[in-house]
Amino acid sequence: MRSSAQLSAVMLAALLHMSGNAVADTKLATIVVQANGQANAASYDGVVEAIRQTVISSQVSGAVVDLAVKTGDTVKEGQLLARIDARSAAQAAVASQAETAAARTALDLASKDYQRQRHLFEKNYISQSAMERAEAQFHATSAQLSAQIAQASIAHIQSDFYVIKAPYAGIVSDVPIALGDMALPGKPLVTLYDPSSLRVTASIPQASIGSYAPNQSFTLEFPNLSNGHQWLARTELQILPTVDAGTHSTQVRIDLPHTLKEVTPGMFARVWLPIPKNVVGMSGQLSIPASAVVRRAEMTGVYVIDANNKPLLRQVRLGKAQRDTIEILSGISAGDRIATDAQAAAKEAR
């Protein structure tokens, strides 16, 4: 008969054998990530910009007495945006008009006096100096009237500065003021952009942009848009003639069609440029099933099966989505084994 110590050793060995089989066998469906041949496109991060965007500032001082728009409003050309207290400007315009009327009266009097003095001079009733003084007075009064008319015109033009109108049809993107705030010259009141004139701007390394051929087809990606609106094919690419000395990259601009309604300035975008076949050193494209991707708040990852057959969550960066597969830009490598069912792997990892 075996001793109790021998029985304990046999039972421990049996438990270890059963545990080893449990680790070696898993019910999770897995695949080995493989490179899908040579990569045919490279992605570069970009941002959507408004080609026509205006920060409307005040040209005069005064309290904001009327604020007719808010952020997100669509406005027409010439529509009222804000109004600044113009009571002092109105009084100044009235005073200027009164001074103009007084100058006209003075000119009329000076003109009659000049005509009278000229008749007297022709009959030799007054001296030459008296005639010249009358003529000088007439010209001075005429000049004063011209200056006063110009001053009244300036007062009238300045009164228009207190009414802020939209210079073109667009969308209000920012209103940094509130009713009752003090407007000052140069202080922003409303920011407006034209939604029909948008573009994508991205920085691309010199080595990559040098291999791009003019009028070559490429793709824009908008990851934040709904399905069916994420991809846009384009052929026109503007390459700026300057290079950043620190990053050795060049800015490119791609104009967007005015029919693209879902895109707004500041939105993230990717520019996918084709890679020529003769370019070496590009890694193969990695694609995995869409069901393997885990999305938790701002984190995106997949469950990688480790050496002990346990699923471990690893963060990845996603690329193009095509039907049921998603391209992986970084986070995993060819040869890694991943779980194809993310929900099942999450339960196994607990």
UniProtKB/TrEMBL annotation:
Q: Which residues form the Multidrug resistance protein MdtA-like barrel-sandwich hybrid domain?
A: 53-188
Keyword terms, alphabetized? Signal, Transport
Asked if Signal is a keyword of the record, the answer is yes
Q: Which GO terms describe its molecular function?
A: efflux transmembrane transporter activity
What residue stretch is flagged as signal peptide?
A: 1-24
According to its record, what are the GO cellular component terms? efflux pump complex
**Predominant cellular place of this UniProt entry's protein:** other
Location comes to: Cell envelope
Q: Name one Pfam family in it.
A: BSH_RND
Domain Multidrug resistance protein MdtA-like C-terminal permuted SH3 intervals: 288-341
Residue ranges of domain CusB-like beta-barrel in the record: 200-272
Which NCBIfam families does the record match to this protein? RND_mfp
User: Of which family is this protein a member?
Assistant: Belongs to the membrane fusion protein (MFP) (TC 8.A.1) family.
Q: Which named protein is this? A: Efflux RND transporter periplasmic adaptor subunit
